[in-house]
Amino acid sequence: MGNVERNGQELSACQQYQTLLAVSEAIVSHRDLATLFHDLAGRLHLVVRFDYLACILHDATSNTMRLHVLETTEPIPVQAPVPLSVAEDPAGTVLQTQHPLILSNVAEESRWPQLPERAKPYGVNSSCYLPLTTARRRLGVLVFACKQAGAYDTADVDFLEQVANQVAVAVENALAFDEIEALKDKLHQEKVYLEEEARTEHNFGEIVGESAALRRVLRIDREITSRFGQDGPP
After folding, report:
1. How many whole angstroms separate alpha carbon 216 and alpha carbon 220?
2. What's the pTM?
């Protein structure tokens, strides 16, 4: 191996390491996923070629994949995300297999018949899908997409998997924060209802023992504590 090639590889490895540190800094700095992905896109462009960076999450209730965040290098028409069944999208396959997936030529892809048509308005010709998974659960998929065909190869996967592992923790924390905020809001509404009920009742002992509103408040409070402890999500 020549000195020029060796030096180039060392420089690339150094850039990747610095980018992983930058990704960690971005994750610590942002709780909101849209803001986080905007920051990540700027940092990752230094070492990864992409026109679109997407976070696709799995909805366990409907067993569908839904676009949650899309970061682009240029303005695109705003469209409401359309949930897709796990079988209809490459992200579903990656979620199930837990293996990265590279599509070098989207236009010629036949495993997911609707994919070329969905990608056409965005000019996407290649993409790389990586599982977003933590020790607790499978969350979804991180997607790098490029207008250039053949933009990704197996040499990119190790680094991108390290990025995806860090992003998965950030996604899990953000979802947990959103969930606990929703539970707290529900608890507040139930407490307001309970206070109103208390003002209209004369026997508070009956309220404590029989009030459906109070039982709902206590149930929600127990749910928050059991899921996240006293201090909320990490």
Report:
1. 6
2. 0.76
End-to-end CA distance of the chain: give it in Å, rounded: 46
Q: Of the residues 129, 155, 174, which one is the last residue of a structural domain?
A: 174
Sort strands 64-72 and 138-146 into parallel, antiparallel or unpaired.
Answer: unpaired
Assigned token pair, 51: 């026109």
Q: How big is the CA angle at 69 (ends 66 and 74), to the nearest 5 degrees?
A: 125
Tens-digit pLDDT profile for the chain (234 aa)? 443 333 345 447 888 888 888 888 888 888 788 898 999 998 898 889 999 999 999 999 999 999 999 999 888 877 777 899 999 999 999 999 999 999 999 999 999 999 999 999 999 999 999 999 999 999 999 999 999 999 999 988 999 999 999 999 999 988 888 788 777 878 778 777 776 766 665 555 555 555 566 666 667 667 666 766 655 555
Rounded to whole angstroms, how far apart are CA atoms 176 and 181?
A: 9
Q: Same structural domain for residues 134 and 197?
A: no
Element (H, E) at 198: helix 154-200
Domain range for 117: 49-174
